Amino acid sequence: MPRKATVFRWLGQFEQFRDQYTRAREVQADALFDDVLSIADNSKNDWMEANGKDDAGWMLNGDNIRRSQLRIDARKWMAGKLRPKKYGDFKAVELTGADGGPLQVSAALLSDEDLAKIASRAKS
Length: 124
Prior knowledge:
Largest sheet: 2 strands, antiparallel
Strand order of the largest sheet: 1-2
Order of helices and strands: HHEEHHH
Oligomer: single chain
Shape: extended
């Protein structure tokens, strides 16, 4: 495997390598996201046998559940950073005008007198 510095140098020098690297990171994000469901569905070790003097049965293994949540959160975060358009928290807002047409923008023109008033207020 090449050193990290070599990879970064290749990213700057070779367009084809940069395209392959970008695609590999997208695939990595998809794989991380796919892991989330597997981790969430795996209930192994969520319960542990409790054999205390007053306990004979099973109890919830909170440490395992918290660890699973951490693993899920880490993968969701990484996927969102590697592929923000697909897995990020980005929300797009699109403004349209009447009947879905383009948004009409108009600016009111200020008179020279109004501009002078604003300028004099800014100086004081």
